Amino acid sequence: MVETEKEELVQGEVIEALPSATFRIQFPDGKVLICYLAGKMRLHRIKVLIGDKVIVKLDPYGGKGRIVKRL
């Protein structure tokens, strides 16, 4: 885990693709969270598929996460 000022980056795995470019991500500790694609990933049309490992920037208030990188 890499921590920034308020948000932290966590690696997870895509387990389900949902409508509107949202995904269900499972983290190594077993936690599951709904996440959306970051603007740069939409802009450059980077595809995310089930089973992909991704880096997620977590919201400090416990909302949705933002997928910032596909590994």
Key terms:
OB fold (Dihydrolipoamide Acetyltransferase, E2P), mainly beta, single chain, 71 residues, 51% strand
Outline of the structure:
The protein has 71 residues and is mainly β. It has one helix spanning 39-43, and strands spanning 2-3, 8-18, 22-26, 32-37, 53-58, 65-70. The model has no long low-confidence stretch (mean pLDDT 91).
What does this protein look like?
This protein is mainly beta and 71 residues long. The chain has a single domain, classed as Nucleic acid-binding proteins (OB fold (Dihydrolipoamide Acetyltransferase, E2P), Beta Barrel), CATH 2.40.50. It is 7% helix and 51% strand. The protein has one helix spanning 39-43, and strands at 2-3, 8-18, 22-26, 32-37, 53-58, 65-70. It has a 5-stranded mixed beta barrel.
Shape: globular
Q: Low-confidence stretches at least 5 residues in length (pLDDT < 50)?
A: none
What is the CATH class designation? Mainly Beta
Mean pLDDT: 91
Give me the CATH architecture, please: Beta Barrel
Strand order in the largest sheet: 2-3-4-6-5
* Spatial extent as radius of gyration: 11 Å
Distance between the termini: 15 Å
Helical content band: under 10%
Task: Compile the SSE list and pairings.
Layout: E1 2-3, E2 8-18, E3 22-26, E4 32-37, H1 39-43, E5 53-58, E6 65-70
Parallel strand pairs: 4-6
Antiparallel strand pairs: 1-2, 2-3, 2-5, 3-4, 5-6
